[in-house]
Amino acid sequence: MLAGLSALVIVSGVSACGDGSGSSGDSADGATTIDVWLMRDSISAQFQKEFVAGFEAAHPDIDVKVQIQEWDGIGEKVTAALASNDAPDVIETGNTQVAQYAQSGGLLDLSDRTDELGGGDWLKGLAEPGAFEGKQYGIPYYAANRVVIYRTDLFEKAGIDAASIKTRDQWIAATEKLDTAGTQGIYLPGQMWYALAGFIWDEGGDLATRSGETWKGALDTPQALRGMDFYKKLQALGKGPKDSDEAEPPQAEVMAKGQVAQIISTPGGANVVTENNPELKGKLGFFPIPGKTAERPGSVFIGGSDLVIPAASGKQDAAFTFIKELTGDAWQRKLAAAMSYVPNKTTLADAVASDPGASAMAAGAAVGRATPNTPGWAAVEAKNPIKDYMTAVLTGADAPTEAARASASITAAMNDS
Length: 417
Known about the structure:
By secondary structure, the chain is α+β, with helices and mostly antiparallel strands. It is 37% helix and 14% strand.
């Protein structure tokens, strides 16, 4: 869900090419026409219309032709386009997808233009996976990450001030108090491995580490084991299943039943809760996942999108102009306000200050990270030994033994891909 969260919906004035492939010719008025591939279903038609109109007014020599792409099968479609002589000029990719596209040599290296784009202030969770082998190919577009969604009425009844929960210890104490006979302190399914990753990062560990050209699974390090131990303590303060993730059953629907005090989710999960139980409208709040100390929120996995330019594009200057506008401060502020997303720069966090869910995301995003930046990580997620490891530990197996087994699977998957 978080691999890439953006799309521009086609409205009047911006048409789609028939089959969504290839670059179009220049306009009859002499303007350069650029083809832009963006993903479906997260940016409103109103914002899309406003941006394209504003861009074309500011750059009358450039016409924009947006083509909406589906996430299903997009990897193969982008790979084929990058290998062709008829690629689009700008492509939106999930932030963790950039490495696999860059590996093929099909992307334009934008390293020498990052200063022009304000790269020093980019969110690391978008910028770092947008780079490959020391070169910057993906330009951060926007982000989203998990926060804690909580029942304000249950917190008040228990005498808990959510604003005072700044550390893991305070979070555990509050959750223990909330975990009563009639209420789950937290609904945390056993295989929410993105949440586990954050706890591991907070301990100074990682999912995998690199030595030269070789990657090695790292779940069996002392730091990673401490992260799993915290997950186990938190997960025990509710009735979340130990053998499934947040999608089975959908955790927001579980919270909507009324017996759950907290879940870990993107803020949009609150909308699902209230859609399923309108009685909970006005009774949901948000706070960043707490860290080990009050000075720093918990690390989170940042999902979101980067924008790339294919090396085969014949209109790279115009494509760069498009990216510069859409990822620039002015439009980033408008995007954040319109869609409740985290802007691409830490310096723009105030753009969502009045939005409780988005501001909680922004606090976490400032210290957010992404999965190991290598094409081989896709093979890990395909098998996902992390989920099996988590279930084994939560059901009583020896954590170091299971961590070593999972780490070996990660090592094999990353180096065989």
